Amino acid sequence: DVGSRLVSTSAPERTLVLVKPDGVARGLVGEVLSRLEAKGLRLVAAELRTLTRETAETHYAEHSERPFFADLVEFITGGPLMALVVEGPRTIEAFRALAGATDPVKAAPGTIRGDFALEVQNNIVHGSDSPESAAREVKLFFPDLG
Ligand code: UDP
């Protein structure tokens, strides 16, 4: 219909977003949700949970040889996180733009990381970085999602 065409002309795409344990501990879940909803992205799943070591290691498998891997797994399993599946046009790119650069000191002010974080590990949010990662990560966190 005309209404939905005015909102978007591209096919919807899904991404996995995490409000990491630092974001949950600091009370930033609402802030992240309001930014992505204000942007026009739509929530399709949401759950507060504490990751097992196994899930964390699978999620960050591409970093398993990096020197920060052990600390990253400790951090991401260290408390509850908010796992979200978000849908909309060009969602992967759109959420990464909202999140800002990995290093929050380099992230532009106005982005989530640029506004709320200072340390590269404790950078508040995760968003899948490609359609392949998004498919893998959505399945890892929400295997029952249709
Ligand atoms: N990270 C870290 N030290 C580094 C680089 C990354 O602790 O030197 C953490 C940080 O929390 C980051 C995550 O590892 O968000 C994954 O890194 P990636 O390069 O995939 O960044 P992202 O896609 O999250 O921006």
TrEMBL record:
Keywords: ATP-binding, Cytoplasm, Kinase, Magnesium, Metal-binding, Nucleotide metabolism, Nucleotide-binding, Phosphoprotein, Transferase. The keyword Phosphoprotein applies. Pfam families: NDK. One of its GO terms (cellular component) is cytoplasm. Residues 12-146 form the Nucleoside diphosphate kinase-like domain. ATP binds at residues 20, 68, 96, 102, 113, 123. InterPro entries: NDK-like_dom, NDK-like_dom_sf, Nucleoside_diP_kinase, Nucleoside_diP_kinase_AS. PROSITE patterns: NDPK (PS00469), NDPK_LIKE (PS51374). GO terms for molecular function: ATP binding; metal ion binding; nucleoside diphosphate kinase activity. CDD domains: NDPk_I. One of its GO terms (biological process) is CTP biosynthetic process. Its EC number is 2.7.4.6. SUPFAM superfamilies: Nucleoside diphosphate kinase, NDK. Belongs to the NDK family. This is Nucleoside diphosphate kinase. It comes from Blastococcus colisei.
